Amino acid sequence: MKNKGNAKNEWSLIIKLLMGILFGSVVGLLASESIMSVVVSIKYVLGQFIFFTVPLVIIAFIAPAITKLKNNANKMLGMGIGMAYLSAVGAASFAYIAGLMIIPHLSVPSVMDSLHELPDASFKLAIPPVMSVMSALVIAILLGITTLKTRAEVFEKGLQEFEKMMLMVIKSAVIPVLPFFVATTFAGLAYEGTLTLQLPVFLKIVVLALVGHMIWLGVLYSLAGAVSGKNPWEVLKHYGPAYLTAVGTMSSAATLPVALDCARKSNVLSKETVDFMVPLGGTIHLAGSVLTETLFIMVISLMLYGAIPSVGTMALFVLLFGIFAIGAPGVPGGTVMASMGIVVGVIGFDPAGVALLIAIFALQDSFGTACNVTGDGALTLMLEGVFNKDGTLSTQAESSNA
Asked: Residues near 136 by Cβ (< 8 Å), separated by ≥ 6?
C-alpha cells in the first residue's frame, strides 16, 4: 500500500512539474512587460525561499548521516568525493573524444540572436541563506565527524531531531512551491526568446549533449549495478520527479529536497547511505554539466578561433575541471562560473568566447543539472554496495536510535 502511495505521489509531482513547464512557457510567449515584471518578482521570492533552505537541508541530512555511519564515515566521505571527481573527469574525457569525432562534421553557427531582456522585478523580498552551500557542507562534515568521535550523544540526538524538522519543511513547504518556481523559470526563458530563437541555432549541440548525458548515466548506473550486485533500475525508476525538477530549476541545490525523496523510495538503498550521499552528490557531483561545457568549449573554439583545443590542453583542462566542479555552487550556472579561471587561463578564451560560453551553456543548463542529480543515485548505489552490502548500517542506526 505504501509503494502505491509513493508511486501516486511521484506521478502527481511529475504532472504538476510538466504543467508548470507548459503554463510558464505559454505565459512567457504571450505576456506583456508589466505581467513579466510580476512573474519575475514571484520567481525571485520563491527562489530566495528555496535557496535559503538548501544549506539547512545539507546540514540536517549529512551531519546526522555521518553519525549513523560509525566507523565507515571517513572512508565513505573519501570515496564519495573520489567518485564525484572520477565521474566528472570521465564525463569530460568522454565528451572530448566524442566531440573530436562529431563536431568537425557539424555546421557550427557563427552568430547568435540577441535575447529579449527580462524586466526588473516589481517586488523583491531578500531572504539570503545563512551560509553558502560549501560552508554548509564543511559544517555538516565537521559536526558529523566531531559528534561521532567525541560520542556526544545529546548532540547526536539533536542532529536527528533537526533532520526531522527539515524533512517537514521539505515536504510541507519546499516541494509544494517547486512547480510554481519551475513555471516562472520557463516563463522567463520563453519571454527572453531562448525557447524560440537561440535553441534552434544550437539544437545540434544541445542534442549531442543530451545523448552524452544518457550514455554517461548508463555508464554510471551499469557500474553501480556491478559494484552493488543490485538492480540499478530500482534506483533510476524513482528519479523522474527529481529529473524534471532539475530541468525546471536548473539547480542541483534547489532539487535536493526532491532528490532525497526520490532516492528514499528505492528498496535497494538504505536511508543512511541516501541521507549521506545524495546531499553530498548534489553539492559536488556535476558530471552532466562538465560533459556539456566540454562540448561547448570545443564548439566555441572551432567557431571563434578556428580550431578545437589540442589533446594536451584539454587533458590539463579536464583534470583541473574535475577539481573545480567539486567546489562549484549548486545553483544555476554554477559550473560554468566556477570554471571561468581555467577557461581563460588554460583554454585561452577571450571575453567574446567567455560571453558566448555562458550564453549557450544557459540553453541546456537545466538538462546538465538533471544529469547531475540523476547520476547521484548511481553514486549512492555504489556506496551502498561497498559499505552496506550486508545491511550493517541500518542495524547500527536502529541500535543508536534505540
From this structure: 54, 55, 56, 58, 59
- Cα–Cα distance, 59 to 133 (Å, whole number): 10
Q: Which of 162, 174, 128, 168 is nearest to 59 (CA)?
A: 162
Nearest-CA neighbor of 278 among 392, 170, 367?
A: 170
Q: What is the DSSP letter of 306?
A: S
Amino acid at 365: D
Contact 308, 105 (CB under 8 A): no
Set of cell numbers at residue 249? 530549476
Measured at the CA of 332, the angle between CA 326 and CA 335, to 5 degrees, comes to 30
142 vs 157: CA distance, rounded Å = 16
User: How many Cβ atoms are within 10 Å of 33's Cβ, its own excluded?
Assistant: 11
Asked if 379 and 277 touch (Cβ cutoff 8 Å), the reply is yes
Task: Place 395 in a pLDDT band, splitting at 50, 70 and 90.
Answer: very low
- Measured distance CA(99)–CA(86) in Å, rounded: 19
Non-local (6+) Cβ contacts of 377 within 8 A are: 221, 224, 235, 236, 238, 239, 259, 262, 263, 266, 269, 278
Computed over every residue of the chain, the mean pLDDT equals: 80
Instruction: Tell me the mean pLDDT in the region 344-351.
Output: 79
Indicate the pTM of the whole model. Answer: 0.67
Q: Which residue bears the cell 570515496?
A: 79
| Contacts by 322-326, CB closer than 8 A, 24 or more apart | 322/85, 322/86, 322/88, 322/89, 322/92, 322/290, 323/85, 325/84, 325/85, 325/88, 325/284, 325/286, 325/287, 325/289, 325/290, 326/81, 326/84, 326/85, 326/88, 326/284, 326/286
How many angstroms separate the CA atoms of 390 and 340, rounded? 44
Task: Tell the residue number behind the cell numbers 579536464, with chain if given.
Answer: 318
| CA distance linking residue 21 with residue 188, whole number of Å | 11
For residue 397, the model assigns a pLDDT of: 47
